[in-house]
């Protein structure tokens, strides 16, 4: 008799989904059994099963054991297929920012953004409004159309314009990572984000939170006061620009050079897929 081998690879959360969907076709799976699985995996003791933690491994082993008891043959290392992810991210000691021979303080005047590369860039700064390149029907907004940003720092306002007659899906393009990737694709050497008063009156620097994929160029956030130093030669301020931007005609060279070294230390952690195979006749 010919045998068929079905490979089953599931993540920790998929273990719950597998049980729930299977209940529709398998009368042997009971409500109490499903509840017990959820009770274990969603328990306070597993602390959310965050990838790379001891609780993550406990949950993975629990799912593997349940698959084994159901008659599946565990694969890899007792059912666990391990791989690395980025865990914690913190600023290294080699972060500095210099403008016109003035040095600025990490976490006080500037901070690297969580998806920044670790790199030194010395280049002119170009202001590119909200950093959008959007086309929808006959409407468009392109902050890059009349400016050369190749091998330069670009300074970009966070958020999106509030006063505009254009009906464009700004929110789809207003994420920091989307704006940074757009700048990189345009040839920018680095990205500087700054908050207008309407976006964040307190002008707080972002913390290094949930890891995101690196965008290959340095990305920082600066305080409005620092941004105003960049714009000083032109007699402009971020507050003024934030008020007047209603369309895509606001990009310009600042005639100011900026030197910045970014360094982010990314800790690698081990997490798991759960894998088993079902052999049927």
Brief summary:
The chain has 281 residues and is α+β, with helices and mostly antiparallel strands. The protein has helices spanning 12-22, 31-41, 54-69, 176-185, 224-231, 238-244; strands at residues 4-10, 73-74, 80-91, 96-99, 102-104, 110-112, 120-127, 133-136, 139-142, 153-157, 190-194, 219-222, 252-261, 264-280.
Relevant terms:
281 residues, 14 strands, eight-stranded mixed β-sheet
Strand content: 25-35%
Helix-and-strand structural type: alpha+beta
Extended strand count: 14
| End-to-end Cα distance | 7 Å
How would you sum up this structure, described in words?
The chain is of the alpha+beta class. It contains 6 helices and 14 strands. The strands form 3 sheets. An 8-stranded mixed sheet has the order 5-4-13-7-10-11-12-6. Strands 1, 2, 3 and 14 form a 4-stranded antiparallel sheet that branches. Strand 4 (about 95-100) and strand 5 (about 100-105) form a beta hairpin. The longest helix has 16 residues, at about 55-70. Residues about 10-25 have low confidence and may be disordered.
């Amino acid at each position: 008799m010919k045998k068929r081998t079905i490979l089953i690879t599931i993540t920790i959360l998929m273990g719950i989904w597998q049980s729930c969907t299977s209940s529709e076709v398998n009368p042997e799976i009971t409500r109490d059994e499903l509840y017990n699985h959820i009770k274990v995996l969603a328990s306070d003791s597993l602390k959310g099963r965050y990838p790379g933690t001891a609780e993550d491994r406990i949950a993975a082993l629990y799912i593997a054991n349940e698959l084994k008891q159901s008659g599946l043959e565990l694969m890899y290392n007792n059912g666990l297929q391990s791989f690395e992810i980025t865990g914690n991210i913190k600023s290294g000691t080699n972060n500095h920012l210099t403008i016109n021979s003035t040095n600025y303080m990490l976490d006080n005047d500037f901070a690297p953004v969580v998806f920044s590369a670790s790199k030194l860039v010395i280049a002119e700064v170009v202001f590119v409004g909200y950093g959008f390149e959007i086309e929808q029907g006959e409407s468009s907004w392109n902050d890059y159309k009349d400016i050369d940003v190749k091998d330069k720092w670009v300074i970009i306002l966070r958020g999106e314009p509030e006063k505009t007659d254009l009906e464009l899906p700004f929110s789809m393009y207003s994420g920091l990572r989307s704006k940074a990737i757009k700048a990189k694709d345009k040839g920018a050497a680095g990205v500087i984000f700054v908050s207008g008063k309407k976006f964040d009156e307190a002008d707080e620097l972002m913390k290094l939170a949930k890891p995101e994929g690196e965008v290959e160029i340095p990305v920082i956030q600066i305080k409005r006061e620092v941004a105003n130093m960049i714009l000083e030669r032109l007699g402009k301020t971020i507050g003024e620009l934030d008020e007047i931007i209603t369309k895509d005609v606001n990009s310009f060279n600042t005639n100011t050079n900026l030197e910045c070294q970014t360094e982010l230390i990314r800790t690698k952690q081990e997490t798991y897929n759960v894998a088993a195979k079902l052999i049927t006749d």
